[in-house]
C-alpha cells in the first residue's frame, strides 16, 4: 500500500462568500469536509448568531456555536451536527495548535474557550466556557488579533494543567472589528462598540498528564472515495496511511462545488 497519496489541484479562485471556520480540530459544522461521518453543513463559515442585527436585537446573545439565540441550535447537543464525534485528543497542560480558515476578513480577534461537558447529550453553557478561556502559548493573553490576509491562521494555545475530560466543547469565537461604533468611554472608532461575531464548536478529549493522545481517524476516508469541496489555488493535499489529512493551502476557500479524489490505493 502506498503510504501517501498526493493530489495536486490548480483551479481558479472563485467568488468568496462567508467568513470563517475552525478546521483543526474540525468543528461540528466542518467535520464532513475532512472525512468524518457527520452531516454536511455547507454554510459552516457563516455561523454568526443569525446576523449582526438579530444578535443586537437579542441584547448581544448568541448560541455557543453560532446559532441564533432564539432559534434552533443545530450545532449544539441534540442538534443535527452535534453527534459527539471526538475530532481532537490532547493532554492536560499541552500546547495545542488550532487552525482557523478565514474566507472574508473583518479584522478583529479570536478567543478560544473550553468546557468540560462530559456528556454529549447535554448542552454546554456560556458560563462553563467562560471558566476556561485558553491562553495563547506566547503568554500574550487570550485574544489573538488577526492581520488583513485571507487563508489559514495557526494559533498555539495552552490547555489548563488540571483540566481532564472525556468530552470537552472547544469553542472558537471571532469578534470582528470592521464596524464603526462608540466605546464605553465615549470614543468613536472603527472596531468600537458592538461587532459581528462568528462561532464554531469542536468536540475534544483531554487526557490526564502522562496520557497518550489518540489519533482521530475519520472512518469515512478509509478505502473509500473522499469528497473534497475545495476551490482555490496552490492546493497540495496529502492523505496519510492513517486516513488523516496533511495539507498546505494558500488562499483557500471552500464552496459547495465537489472535487472527487480516490483515497488510499493498493
* Number of distinct helices: 2
Mean pLDDT: 79
Strand content: 35-45%
CATH class: Mainly Beta
* Largest sheet features: 5 strands, mixed
How many structural domains are formed by the residues? 1
Q: Return the string of H and E elements.
A: EEHEEEHEEEEEEEEEEE
Side-by-side strand order of the widest sheet: 3-12-9-5-7
Category from helices, strands and their pairing: mainly beta
CATH architecture type: Distorted Sandwich
**CATH superfamily annotation:** chitin-binding protein cbp21
Characterize the overall form: globular
Portion in helices: under 10%
Domain Chitin-binding type-4: 19-204
InterPro entries: Cellulose/chitin-bd_N
Protein name: Chitin-binding type-4 domain-containing protein
Pfam family, one: LPMO_10
Characterise this structure.
The chain is mainly beta. Helix content is 4%, strand content 36%. The protein has helices spanning 52-57, 126-130; strands at residues 5-9, 20-24, 88-91, 95-102, 109-116, 135-136, 144-145, 151-158, 165-175, 180-182, 188-190, 197-207, 225-228, 231-239, 245-253, 259-262. The strands form five sheets. Strands 3-12-9-5-7 form a five-stranded mixed beta sheet. Strands 2-4-8-6 form a four-stranded antiparallel beta sheet, with no helix packed on it. A hairpin with a 5-residue loop joins β14 and β15 (245-253). The longest helix is centred in the N-terminal third of the chain and has 6 residues, at 52-57.
